[in-house]
Amino acid sequence: MNYRRNADHVLDAVQAYQRDKGALPRSLNMLVPQYLAALPDSPELHYDFTDGSLAYHYTPSWPQLRPVWCRSKGDTTEWICKEHIV
After folding, report:
1. Distance between CA atoms of 17 and 20, rounded to whole angstroms?
2. How many whole angstroms separate alpha carbon 79 and alpha carbon 86?
3. What is the b/e burial string over 25-57, where b = at least 16 CB atoms within 10 angstroms of the residue's CB?
4. Are 45 and 39 in contact, with CB atoms under 8 Å apart?
5. What's the mean pLDDT in 33-39?
6. Dist. CA 75–CA 47, nearest whole Å
7. Average pLDDT over the chain, rounded to whole?
8. CA-CA distance, 19 to 16, in Å (whole number)?
9. What is the per-residue pLDDT for 85?
10. Which of 32, 47, 55, 57 is the most buried (most CB within 10 A)?
11. Using only C-alpha atoms, what is the Rg of the chain?
12. pLDDT tens for residues 56-82?
């Protein structure tokens, strides 16, 4: 899944930034260009600098058409993804 791979790549950069600087970045833009050449175009990532977590959502293709919302456990690459029922 490209969405998760892209998000994991950003989380790896968040972790490297924290190791180097001793604190989480205040925004993902602080990772460019030293830790990432650029932020991924997709998925649209939502970053919480208080714990380093990322969140994103997507709508799978048929037959599952309900949106799926994913959030990392802190700044780890462990994800919790759930169908979002409106």
Report:
1. 5
2. 21
3. beebebbeeebbeebbeebebebeeeebbbbbb
4. yes
5. 97
6. 10
7. 93
8. 5
9. 77
10. 47
11. 13
12. 999 887 777 789 999 999 999 999 999
Residues in Cβ contact with 19 at an 8 Å cutoff, skipping those fewer than 6 apart: none
Q: What type of residue sits at position 37?
A: A
Angle of CA points 39, 45, 48, to nearest 5°:
110
Query: Which amino acid is residue 59, in one-letter code?
Result: T
* Beta pairing, strands 46-48 & 79-83: unpaired
Whole-model pTM above 0.85? yes
